[in-house]
Write a structure and sequence with these properties.
Elements lengths: L2 H26 L4 H35 L6 H12 L26
Length: 111
């Protein structure tokens, strides 16, 4: 094999190896096709979360506006005040959760 053909063969081999490396990096690298599709899916999930948070914010802003200004929603104000102060009216129905059994029956007076 003459020297020129050997150098051409080495050059082509190195060039093809470099192209193969670049192709693998494009497909599977940090910024490759697989990673980009994963980032797109994550972006869609985050955008859905943003829309849900914006709806929650709009709901909270509407409740806040109902408590401020000339047209106060009296039912909402009453609910908020009773919840913060821990008081109720005489016509309120109070529900208590069922009591959990005590660990030591003798504390209740059982023998």
């Amino acid at each position: 094999m003459p020297r020129n053909q050997f150098l051409d063969w080495v050059f082509v081999t190195v060039l093809l190896s470099g192209l193969a490396f670049l192709a693998v990096d494009v497909l599977f690298g940090d910024l490759g096709v697989d990673e980009t599709s994963g980032l797109k899916a994550e972006r869609r999930a985050l955008q859905a979360e943003i829309r849900a948070l914006e709806a929650e914010r709009a709901r909270l802003e509407a409740r806040t506006k109902a408590l401020i200004g000339p047209a106060i929603d009296r039912d909402l104000l009453d609910e908020q005040l009773r919840a913060r102060l821990g008081v109720g009216r005489a016509d309120d129905a109070l529900l208590q959760p069922p009591s959990a059994p005590q660990a030591f029956p003798e504390e209740r007076g059982a023998p």
